[in-house]
Design a protein that fits this description.
heterodimer, A: about 140 residues, alpha+beta, 2 helices, 8 strands, globular, B: about 130 residues, alpha/beta, 2,3-Dihydroxybiphenyl 1,2-Dioxygenase, domain 1, 7-stranded mixed beta sheet, 7 strands
Chain lengths: ~140, ~130
C-alpha cells in the first residue's frame, strides 16, 4: 500500500526575517511572492511563492527583531495526499509516528506532521478540500 | 533569471539502501532505477525518487570532506538542499554574479551551487535539464 502522495506540495524555508528572505529569493531567483500572511496573535509572518506545483513557504516571526544577520534554513517539506485520514492510518499501522490531522493555514486544508520514519526530515502531509472553507466575514 | 520549477530536494542519509527501503516501506515511493549511483566528484552515492514533477534525492556521503560529509558529521541525517531548474544555467550564473552573488561554475551536468552566503543560509542549487 502507498499513501498516494501526488507531489511535493510545499517546501518550508524558515527565517528570522521571512519577508527579507522572500524578497531576496524573489529579487535574485525570479520567483514571485503571491501571498503574504501575518495574522495578529499567530506570531508568524508567512510569504508564499509558487513554482509550478510546488509552493515555497517563507516562515518567520511576526515581530522581526533588528538582527545583525538574516539567517534562513530549509526546515521541511509537505506531501500532498488525496485522503489524509487514510494516509495517517496507514502510516500509523506501519509504526510511523504521525500527528493528528488538523486545519492548516491553507483554507480548507488539513495537515498532519510526521515525526518518525523520514531519515531526520521534518515532513508533513496535506489534503486540500478536506474542510469547508469559511465564508469571508462581512466588513 | 527565471526559476522554472523545483527540480528536487536533497536529503542526507547515513545508509542509502536503508533509506530507500524506508521511503518505499513507509510511503510507497520507488527510486528510479535509471538514475543514481556513485558520484565520486561530489563524494556521494545517491538515488532519485520521482514525485510529481520533482524528485526527492537521497544521498550518502562517501568522502571524508566536503559539505555533505560535514553535514553528515554534524547532523547525521536531514534535509540538505533544494534545487531549482532554470533554462540556461550558464546565463543564470552570469546574471547572479553580476548582482554580486557568489555562485560556483556550472558542472558538466549543468548544476551550479549558490553560496549560502548569498541565500541567507539556504543550500540552493541551480540545474539545467
Amino acid at each position: 500500500m502507498a499513501i498516494g502522495a501526488t507531489h511535493i506540495d510545499h517546501i518550508v524555508i524558515s527565517s528570522n526575517d521571512s519577508a527579507a528572505t522572500a524578497e531576496l529569493f524573489a529579487r535574485n531567483f525570479g520567483i514571485e511572492i503571491k501571498r503574504t500572511m501575518s495574522r495578529p496573535g499567530t506570531r508568524a509572518h508567512l510569504e508564499f511563492a509558487k513554482l509550478q506545483e510546488v509552493v515555497l513557504e517563507f516562515a518567520g516571526p511576526g515581530d522581526v527583531q533588528p538582527y545583525d544577520e538574516v539567517k534562513a534554513r530549509l526546515s521541511g517539506f509537505v506531501l500532498a495526499v488525496p485522503d489524509i485520514d487514510a494516509a495517517v492510518a496507514e502510516l500509523r499501522a506501519k509504526g510511523v509516528d504521525v500527528g493528528e490531522p488538523h486545519a492548516a493555514v491553507q483554507p480548507g486544508a488539513k495537515l498532519a506532521g510526521i515525526r518518525s520514519g523520514t531519515n531526520g526530515v521534518p515532513l508533513a502531509l496535506i489534503q486540500y478540500g478536506a474542510l469547508p472553507i469559511p465564508a469571508a466575514e462581512d466588513a | 533569471m527565471k526559476a522554472k520549477k523545483i527540480d528536487h530536494v536533497g536529503i542526507v542519509v547515513k545508509y542509502l539502501e536503508a533509506a530507500v527501503a524506508t521511503y518505499r516501506a513507509n510511503f510507497g515511493f520507488e527510486a528510479d532505477p535509471a538514475r543514481g549511483g556513485d558520484v565520486p566528484a561530489m563524494g556521494i552515492r545517491n538515488a532519485f525518487i520521482p514525485i510529481g514533477e520533482s524528485d526527492i534525492e537521497l544521498f550518502e556521503s562517501t568522502a571524508s570532506e566536503g559539505p555533505v560529509a560535514k553535514f553528515a558529521a554534524e547532523r547525521g541525517e536531514g534535509l540538505f538542499m533544494v534545487s531549482i531548474e532554470v533554462d540556461d544555467v550558464a546565463a543564470a550564473v552570469a546574471e547572479l554574479r553580476g548582482r554580486g552573488l557568489r555562485v560556483g561554475d556550472p558542472s558538466p551536468a549543468g548544476v551550479a551551487f549558490v553560496s549560502m552566503k548569498s541565500t541567507h543560509g539556504v543550500n540552493l542549487h541551480l540545474v539545467q535539464r
